[in-house]
Amino acid sequence: MFRIANPQYLYALLVIPALIAFFWYSRIRRKKALALFGQKEIISVLMPNVSPTRPILKFMILMLALASIIIAVSRPQFGSKLRTEKRKGIELIIALDVSNSMLAEDILPNRLERAKRAISQLVDKLSNDKIGMIVFAGEAYTQLPITADYVSAKLFLNSISPEIVPTQGTAIGAAIELGVKSFNPQFVGNKAMIIITDGENHEDDAIGAAKKASEQGIIIYTIGMGLPQGGPIPDPANGPRSYRKDREGNIIVTKLDEGMLQKIAEAGKGAYVRANNAQVGLNSLFDEVNKMQKSELETQSYADYDDKFQYFIAFGLFLILIDFLILERRNKYLKNFKLFADRK
Q: What angle do CA 154, 157, 161 make, to 5 degrees?
């Protein structure tokens, strides 16, 4: 398993293209300056020991050395041991509604973005639990299988948008059914599912799906994203402040269906929380989830990472030595030695 311990230092590699651009610019300026003194053939006779290619070779070697040292500072490492850890926790799946109605701005900056921020904060609080993510609109898809890799969870979370589910709608029942299938069948501990949506279910029997999940020991919690008065759905395709309209030309207002979400939570033996502009509700639900009995989980992770920066340091120093030994001018004593042949 390979990793970079200090990846922030890799940004220093961006200086290399800038140095290359400056080097070529200075070479062009030098050629123009020499051209003012006379013809190239005459100048080459007056400066017989000047090499046109060695400065380029030296610069390339120096850039490779710099890149090698920057990589060394970022501390490349290889995991040498695969360790199986046993921890106590639960399995948790978050099902996030990504339908267009989640773009409504009654909860700022919009329902979907606010939900994503809350999920990110929830992931930061997890320690021994496993988490998975499902996205749904007219259909449901697994965004992240059950995992203890919280870094991956946040990366997958950042990529969520309405475009990742092509079929619009709000199929809460399909999300619950997919969630039931997504839990590890070998895990005998507590399992919970948090559904974050505006509750406008148009597709299926979400209450029936919650009851079936509850019969399998899965607790269903719901979070209602939206305010009672609702809000219009932005339509970016028609302008920055445009909103979706119905066939009669009226602006569509999407409202939170609290009744539906309360019934789903009741059928799933969980709880319902309504979000607002002050809080989303994941914190209070996480407290409820945290009270659930923890069961033993097995996870595999790499331990005892070995630093390999010394190889890059050695390679960089070797290149610097080579750069030092190569002279920019031809050596008059070694002029017949054609290791670095110059084009004339």
A: 160
